Amino acid sequence: MIFFADESIEAECTSLLRDKGHTVHSVAELFPSISDTVVLDYAVHSNAILLTNDKDFGELVHRQGLAHLGIVLLRMRKTSALVKAKILADTIDRHGDELMSAFTVISSNTVRIRKD
Questions:
Q1: Interhelix angle for 11-19 vs 81-95, to 10°?
Q2: Using CA atoms, how far apart are residues 73 and 77, in angstroms rounded to an integer?
Q3: Contact of 98 with 113, CB cutoff 8 Å
Q4: How far is CA 68 from CA 13, 46, 76, 80, 105, in A?
Q5: Where are the alpha helices (DSSP H) in the chain?
Q6: Is the dihedral of CA 85, 88, 90, 96 positive or negative?
Q7: Alpha-helical segments (H) within 46-111
Q8: pLDDT beneath 50, residues of the chain
Q9: Cβ distance 14 to 5 under 8 Å?
Q10: At a CB cut-off of 8 Å and minimum separation 6, what does 96 contact?
Q11: pLDDT at 77
Q12: Which residue, 38, 77, 26, is CA-closest to 55?
């Protein structure tokens, strides 16, 4: 799968997904400090699912109606980056196809997938 990691996503997440064979583009590596709307647009044009810790993307897609190919919001504030990466990778392994065109929220013990 192809993912675009927002600047808020830890390097451990991008590294683990790459190790598992996924293509992961990263805001931090490519375009530091770009706006959320540009991040979302880049993800769409790259045919990528957006990975983020930033709940503002919910506002952009649900209230403003901006296009996306899938957004995965990580809500694990007190979780170490390594554990967060493992939970993300496990979720992708279990629900990969369901993530396309969906808004997914992953917490430490819950995965909610909302299809648009």
A1: 40
A2: 12
A3: yes
A4: 21, 11, 22, 28, 15
A5: 11-19, 27-30, 36-45, 56-58, 81-95
A6: negative
A7: 56-58, 81-95
A8: none
A9: yes
A10: 1
A11: 86
A12: 77
What is the pLDDT, as a whole number, of residue 52? 97
Rounded CA-CA distance 62/55 in Å is 11
Give me Rg for the CA atoms of the chain: 13
Residue with tokens 């919001």: 73
Instruction: Provide the pairing of β-strand 71-74 with 102-106.
Output: parallel
Helix (H, G, I), strand (E, B) or coil at 107: coil
Instruction: For strands 23-26 and 49-52, give the pairing.
Output: unpaired
Q: In what order do the strands lie in the sheet with 111-115?
A: 23-26, 2-5, 49-52, 71-74, 102-106, 111-115
Beta strand 2-5 with 71-74: parallel, antiparallel or unpaired? Answer: unpaired
Please tell me the predicted confidence (pLDDT) of residue 46.
95
pLDDT in tens, 15-47: 999 999 999 999 999 999 999 999 999 999 999
Residue written as token pair 């990975």: 51
